[in-house]
Amino acid sequence: MNKGDRTFGTGVDRLTLTKGSPPVSLTELGTGYGTLQVNLHWTAREENRSVREPGSGWRGLLRPTLFKPMEMPASGSQITSVDLDLGCMYELADGTKGVVQPLGEFFGDLQHAPYIKLSRDDRTGAPSGEMMYIDLGKKDEFKRILIFVYIYDETPAFDRAHALVTLFLPGGPPIEVKLDKRAPQARSCAVALIENKDGNLMVSREVKYVYGFQAELDRLYGFGLQWQRGYKPVSG
């Protein structure tokens, strides 16, 4: 790891994966067992008011569809409402593939395959954010895991929020990936890719923005999943 990729804060040694960072071995940094915690946290930038109509429910489209990029109004003084979601696509050693995400309520399972579980769906950017858990004791069951973040079509884009994904490794330093690129029309972002290399879990920074949704990320990484329309309920 380059010296410039290592940052310090609150007494904790943190690794920040930058564009030029090589893949990092989770197995060598951590204890090799326990639970990897993946956290998504964001804060909204001071921009124009949200374009979501009052009383409308959140929608998410999983089926491959052509989308016209949403035109963003001129910025003003209002705090933008932003709802980002954390998810992952996975491929297990036995060939099983799937997705873990709030949309469609695919929250996963930590005790059984895929040994990945999403704890909650945060719609506010609260300090706790959203957390995903990955059982490192089952590392031999994993072939690859693509961690991604997506945003709803009625919500302003990535340049309206400061987003950070942090991997908390038992026995090792936190690993950060910042989503700081100005991508005003992107709807999804591949954040990090975890791959099993001969029993060694390697994580690499991706930070690839796409204009479409999960199906477009799937095409980019070749998981070959079958996507269909999914919904999130209106928040109370």
TrEMBL record:
<protein>
    <submittedName>
        <fullName>Tellurium resistance</fullName>
    </submittedName>
</protein>
<dbReference type="InterPro" id="IPR003325">
    <property type="entry name" value="TerD"/>
</dbReference>
